[in-house]
Q: What sequence folds into this?
């Protein structure tokens, strides 16, 4: 019986989803070992400095393995102690010291880098490994408040400084950055903000990157950034190929203008606000309207403040601003999906009716509208506004789905879902009654209507 061609064997191997199954293949025979080992390295997850060290030695000794890596994941990284003999093994490793020396610009930098590696620093190990992986498509990073090695390395990559004179990360498509306070070392990080905005910028300048996700991004105007007083290192307007931005638990006091303005064709922008950052001045939706105005013809998905956290007081003082309305969305001609808080969607302030009707705030291209954070006192008004939208359906021919989220449950029923009660019974009957006219209009228009309550976790 003739042996299966290698191409067929590889297709079979790719269908094996569990890494343990792929590992089993390499022990079948020498032929299978050589054929399937690169497949095992297709997606790599490094969870400690020991994983990183083993991976480094493997790919340096066999560069074909480095070229096989398509996805690298550090999100499960945890700090591990370094024993004295392990410390010495790292500092005395010729392969490691030679590589670090080749990517450093001075002996002092190289020595400091090696010492950080010997301390198990995630920042140092990540910065050491990344330049080796020329075929990366997806990258999931963790970073601490201070990440000097990773930041320095990425700055050199995008600037084409030695040893990165040949374009690096030419195939990288998706990048995610996760700030981890547990990785902070020493006292120097106290009361400092995460440097994610600084770390993000180099990835925006890589020509192949399309999707960027990050958390704990703190927006600063360029003039206040001590590391970039002139702003000359930031991307030019419309320079970046990034089309999707997802920022979580972040603070965009200035509407993330530097990041948004760099995108030539932004299609999706998702933002979740958090007042937990030292420099947070509260949520300012109108700042995002100004920033996103350059993307009015391309933006298809807009999520603003999905389940964000808001404190009564911020660094700016009492967190009560009338700067809550995002602004009209009518000019966002490509917009298909909107997820936004009610007070950001409509300019109501303390009024009974919005200053500008909802029908004049929505784009004709809209397909899905998710309204979050609706207080019960505004529910009747919102229902009326949405009914007007449906009655003028010719202006919104693509609208198919409306969802409303708010605090609609009975206080006495807060624990009813834990006893297996029917979920809808936990939402106040008068809310369903108030929504019934809208429900009828939606049914007649062939649209879907859903009512949510975030306290009911499995809705």
A:
């Amino acid at each position: 019986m003739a042996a299966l061609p290698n191409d067929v064997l590889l297709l079979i191997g790719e269908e094996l989803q569990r890494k343990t199954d792929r590992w089993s293949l390499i022990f079948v025979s020498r032929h299978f070992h050589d054929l399937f080992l690169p497949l095992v390295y297709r997606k790599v997850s490094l969870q400690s400095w020991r994983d990183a060290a083993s991976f480094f030695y493997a790919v340096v000794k066999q560069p074909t393995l480095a070229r096989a890596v398509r996805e690298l994941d550090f999100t499960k990284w945890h700090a591990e102690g370094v024993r004295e003999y392990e410390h010495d093994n790292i500092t005395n490793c010729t392969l490691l010291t030679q590589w670090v020396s080749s990517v450093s610009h001075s002996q002092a930098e190289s020595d400091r880098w090696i010492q950080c590696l010997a301390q198990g620093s995630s920042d140092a190990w990540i910065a050491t490994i990344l330049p080796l992986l020329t075929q990366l498509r997806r990258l999931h990073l963790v970073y601490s408040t201070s990440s000097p090695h990773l930041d320095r390395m990425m700055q050199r990559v995008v600037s084409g400084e030695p040893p990165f004179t040949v374009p690096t990360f030419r195939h990288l498509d998706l990048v995610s950055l996760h700030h981890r306070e547990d990785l902070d070392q020493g006292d120097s990080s106290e009361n400092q903000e995460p440097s994610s905005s600084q770390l993000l910028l180099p990835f925006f300048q890589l020509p192949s990157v399309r999707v960027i996700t990050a958390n704990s991004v703190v927006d600063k105007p360029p003039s206040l950034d001590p590391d970039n007083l002139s702003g000359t290192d930031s991307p030019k307007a419309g320079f970046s190929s990034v089309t999707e931005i997802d920022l979580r638990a972040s603070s965009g006091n200035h509407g993330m203008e530097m990041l948004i303005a760099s995108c030539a064709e932004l299609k999706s922008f998702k933002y979740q606000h958090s007042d937990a950052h030292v420099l947070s001045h509260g949520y300012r939706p109108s700042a995002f309207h100004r920033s996103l105005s350059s993307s009015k013809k391309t933006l298809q998905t807009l999520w603003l403040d999905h389940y964000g956290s808001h404190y009564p007081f911020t660094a700016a003082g009492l967190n009560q601003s009338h700067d809550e309305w995002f602004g009209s969305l009518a000019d966002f001609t490509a917009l298909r999906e909107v997820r936004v808080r009610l007070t950001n969607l409509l300019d109501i302030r303390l009024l009974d009716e919005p200053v500008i009707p909802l029908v004049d705030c929505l784009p004709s291209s809209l397909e899905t509208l998710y309204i979050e954070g609706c207080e019960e006192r505004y529910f009747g008004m919102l229902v009326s506004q949405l009914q007007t939208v449906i009655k003028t359906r010719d202006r919104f021919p693509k609208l198919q789905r409306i969802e409303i989220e708010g605090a609609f449950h009975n206080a006495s029923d807060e624990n009813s879902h834990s006893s297996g009660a029917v979920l809808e019974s936990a939402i106040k009957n008068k809310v369903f009654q108030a929504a019934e006219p809208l429900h009828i209009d939606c049914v007649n228009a062939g649209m879907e209507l859903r009512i949510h309550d975030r306290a009911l976790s499995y809705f």
